[in-house]
Amino acid sequence: MYLLTVGINHKTAPLDIRNSLSLQEKELRKKLLKKQQELKMNEFLILSTCNRFEIYIFSESDNYKQQFLKDYFYQFFYQNLREDLHYKLDSLSNYLYFKFDLQAVEHLYRVAAGLDSLVTGETQILAQLKRQFNDYQTHNLTDSYLNQLFLEAIRIGKLVRTETKISEKAVSVSYSAVELARNIFGDLQGEKVMILGAGETAELLLKNLVNYGVEGIIVANRTYSNGQKLADKYGGEVIHWQQLTDRIAEVDIIIASTAAPHTVLHKNDLKAAMQKKHGPMFLIDIALPRDIDCQVEELAGVHLYNIDDLQQVVDHNLDIRAGEISKAEAIIAQEKYKFRRWLRERSCVPLIKEMRADAEQIKADEVARALHLLATSELSAEEIIEQLGHRLLNKLLHQPTIGLKAIAAEEPVHKKEKLAVIKKIFAVGD
């Protein structure tokens, strides 16, 4: 069997090209199904995400390393691009990559492990890969080879994340805020948060904090109705902007993300609040210009972080992940050879089936003969069983014996190697 991967990803092709193909995944699947016999594809699977569009194919045909196949998929990708992107025809050959056999196995393992992702070690790709594989398996588009390959890829994706730190530490601004908050409070269960403003970034921060157990949400927004929507979404309370300074002593975390052209939270506001509190205050200011007076850092127990601070955490964590790449690659390098071994072992399955079928026929014939003798012959059961064993032994070893004699009669050039194989198969000799 031959394995081919052909595709584009965020490293090789611009977003408009990737989107044009990924949005048509189900339609392109149908087109390939119609061409399956012509292209001699035993199995295929399209892995389509926002960052990649790849086709994985197993075929018995050795044509899968020929130029005509590259030409076909080049035309296939081109013909299925939006017409307004056809001007990029000259560049398409640079966007496409072709990977064969072991190289294709390694590529999929890297994808599953998050090594080929925009953000190293991200976990979303593994979920996407599982979902796509389950879909194709459900529709009987994959068989034993792709099933084994993708099950192994999923296993290795998990293994890499377990054995290395490739997916640890926050690598987004919103998650870095959670990481910092946990450094201050430990468990976030039951901590209270106030959000100033109702923008998308602030909501994402709030969502991640809530996922880690933050409760008692208070939303303060100049437009009360917008604040109400956000509060309702997360089971929180909305307050009028004028109530802001009166309520900040109730919370442990403040996310500031207004569009105000000036500071909205001052040192004196926090000073008064901290006199009423018995714990730390974690402030996240992601507004530009800043919402929170930077002098609040002078207050005991107050921890202020702005967007640049959060980005520094992200950059540091990305460096940590980058340091784990070599460990992940070592795992993949080892595992890809295991799959190649499995693939090679599969090549003899038809022969094994044929051998077992022949042996099964011999067994059936001899058992039938023995049963007939037991019913009709004057021979004892012991004699019949002895005959059965003797006849089975002779018949099962007849062809191997003839083959072995033929090898022994050959010129000595390759005889030694062939005899060594025979010894290994039958586990005899030194």
TrEMBL record:
Residues of the Quinate/shikimate 5-dehydrogenase/glutamyl-tRNA reductase domain: 179-313
Catalytic residues (positions): 50
Keyword terms: NADP, Oxidoreductase, Porphyrin biosynthesis
Catalytic activity: (S)-4-amino-5-oxopentanoate + tRNA(Glu) + NADP(+) = L-glutamyl-tRNA(Glu) + NADPH + H(+)
A Gene Ontology molecular function term of the record: NADP binding
Biological process according to GO: protoporphyrinogen IX biosynthetic process from glutamate
Domain spans labelled Tetrapyrrole biosynthesis glutamyl-tRNA reductase dimerisation: 327-427
Domain characteristics, as noted in the entry: Possesses an unusual extended V-shaped dimeric structure with each monomer consisting of three distinct domains arranged along a curved 'spinal' alpha-helix. The N-terminal catalytic domain specifically recognizes the glutamate moiety of the substrate. The second domain is the NADPH-binding domain, and the third C-terminal domain is responsible for dimerization.
Family: Belongs to the glutamyl-tRNA reductase family.
Record text on subunit structure and interactions: Homodimer.
Stated role: Catalyzes the NADPH-dependent reduction of glutamyl-tRNA(Glu) to glutamate 1-semialdehyde (GSA).
Descriptive protein name: Glutamyl-tRNA reductase
Lineage: Bacteria, Bacillati, Bacillota, Clostridia, Halanaerobiales
